Give the backbone structure.
Amino acid sequence: MLGERNIRGMLAGTAALLVGGFTAAGGARPQDSSLADQLKNEYKITKVGFDSSGWSVTEPGAVLVIQKGGILGVPPTNLKMAAATYRDGELHSPKASVLLVGPTTKQLTIGEKVYVLKLDVRVKDDKIQIIILECDPCNNATQPSMFKSTVTFEFPKDYLGKADVSQVKDFISQVLAPDANGEATQRAQNTATPATQLPPAAATRATIKLGQSIEQVVKVLGPPETTVDAGAKQIYVYKNLKVTFVDGKVADVQ
């Protein structure tokens, strides 16, 4: 079994990586920071973390509505994501990258509401990348899902260096439009019992069997608190449970 201290360390590292984008090692350039700050005022970033119930949304942010199909979601603790790319008025699905993100994926549909987890701006490259997370309460989800995804917006050459924030928002809104009822939804979340918290694993220990697939386990336990990828072997760590998969099938439960 992994020690409690090691698990906490992995959880902290995973939380930092959950919303990792394509930020360059050299940091943001001044013009990038200016536009990014303006956009973050328009799109309040959602904060996530861990509590006694597992991985959850700790501070809801702006709510956006998906306008185009082709966005591929993965469980919230996945470190790999396949980005959809929006350019020339068309959303290009990440078909070539599906095998890189694991067996558990989900198509996020038109009309589905999502939070903004991270927003990266590259003025010189004329690109903006937005990491989104399903808003379960907004979508009236009966079971926690919280799949996340990435959309990369590719603007015409030298566009971002001259455009104002309203023009950029109009461009982004072709794929991710602001939710007209977003503020009301957030107020309802703040007063209701959080629906985004993941169920404790201990209560469902008996339902996990050797030979089950990763997808079957996630349907029962929800996304893990953290994962360890060792090639053919993967370890999903929950609050009171560790599930080891070999070649995508349950090989051990502790």
